[in-house]
Design a protein that fits this description.
Elements (H helix, E strand, L loop, with lengths): L1 E3 L2 H13 L9 E7 L2 E6 L7 H8 L8 H20 L2 E2 L8 E3 L5 E3 L6 E2 L5 E3 L14 H6 L1 E3 H15 L13 H9 L12 H10 L10 H9 L2
Antiparallel strand pairs: 1-3, 2-3, 4-7, 5-6, 8-9
Helix pairs in contact: 3-5, 3-8, 5-7
Length: about 230
């Protein structure tokens, strides 16, 4: 259950979650309750917490997870994101902190606070100049043009892949000033290959984080070309 006084934001989240058809890799909205200025959002229970939390626990016990385990996690996230795309939703905040795990190790994409419906051309244009984004996970065109699409979610998935193989390290953690980070990423800075990351997976990270949004694969292509081979 989540409580907040930001009723406008939470109603947006509820609207998005209600528009998403049920899928095993998407957290399920059970219901919500409004009283005065407080909104209670009731979602499916994920007993094992967030993927980020699991990874930070495993950093001291790396032998407890195999490359196959990382690939399975990646695969589940892709299937969830493919479903969101089919529902016409852009998540805009995909990261390991926003992926939950059930007791049966089923991954569930969660936290739809920034998620929005795409327009008929497949874009969502930000109109609020004060809206902030998770810069370290956000594609450059979204900063510059304040426009999101499935391809910006693909960029975020590339960063999530990198997170998996670094046990949830903070992307670009040596750069503290967001303005500097944005400039450097726009000019070609990319995440380096984690030591335990297979080359073919890192190649996927690079493809997902291409500076040209049209060059990035879409989620069905990721499934068919990378995870089903």
């Amino acid at each position: 259950m989540r409580l907040t006084k930001d009723t406008h934001s939470l109603h947006k989240e509820i609207e998005v979650m209600r528009s998403v058809r049920k899928h095993q890799n998407i957290i399920n909205l059970i219901g919500y309750y409004v009283k005065d200025d407080a909104v209670s959002l009731v979602i499916e229970y994920a007993e094992n917490g967030s993927l980020e939390s699991l990874l930070t626990q495993l950093v001291n016990y790396p032998n407890q997870i195999t490359i196959h385990g990382f690939i399975d996690f990646s695969n589940q996230v892709v299937y969830g994101m493919q479903h969101l795309t089919a529902c016409g939703i852009v998540h805009r905040d995909l990261a390991t902190r926003n992926v939950l795990i059930t007791k049966n190790n089923v991954l569930k994409i969660s936290d739809f606070g920034l998620s929005r419906k795409l327009d008929g051309e497949g874009f969502y244009k930000v109109t609020d100049d004060n809206e902030v984004f998770p810069v370290r996970w956000t594609a450059p065109e979204a900063w510059k043009e304040r426009t999101f699409s499935t391809k910006t979610d693909v960029w975020s998935f590339g960063v999530l892949l990198w997170e998996l193989f670094t046990f949830a390290a903070n992307p670009y953690n040596t750069i503290k000033v967001m303005r500097i980070l944005m400039s450097r990423v726009e000019n070609g800075l990319r995440l380096s290959r984690p030591e335990i990351c297979p080359q073919n997976v890192y190649t996927l990270v690079q493809c997902c984080c291409s500076g040209n949004a049209n060059s990035r694969p879409d989620f069905p292509e990721i499934i068919n070309c990378y995870f089903n081979n």
